[in-house]
Automatic annotation (TrEMBL):
Region of interest: Disordered: 41-92
One Pfam short name: Actino_peptide
Biased composition annotated in UniProt, kind: Low complexity: 52-78
Originating organism: Kitasatospora cystarginea
The protein, known as: ATP-grasp-modified RiPP
NCBIfam families: GRASP_targ
Length: 92
């Protein structure tokens, strides 16, 4: 009879930690600001922390033909893009 060693990760497993119940929040739209607000079970407004907005842009990049291509227009031989993600800080 041969013994197969258990995978390393399973030897590190343990029972889950007992978790507290997560309170129920309801998302509603504030009629004045048209922004989502969160209400707890007692009807109080809950602050969800600061978060902002972000924009994604993509700038095309090209590589042209090398030197020695005299008399010909420099046509791109490879085109791709470089994505950028700009984020601002939320105010609350």
């Amino acid at each position: 009879m041969t013994f197969t060693e258990p995978p390393w990760g399973t030897t590190r497993m343990g029972p889950f930690v007992t978790a507290e119940p997560v309170p129920a929040y309801t998302a509603v739209i504030d009629p004045e600001t048209q922004v989502a607000i969160y209400i707890d079970e007692q009807g109080r407004r809950v602050e969800m922390g600061a978060h902002g907005t972000s924009t994604n842009t993509s700038t095309p990049t090209t590589t042209g033909q090398g030197d020695g291509q005299s008399g010909q227009q420099n046509q791109p031989s490879d085109i791709d893009s470089m994505p950028a993600n700009d984020q601002d800080q939320g105010t609350g």
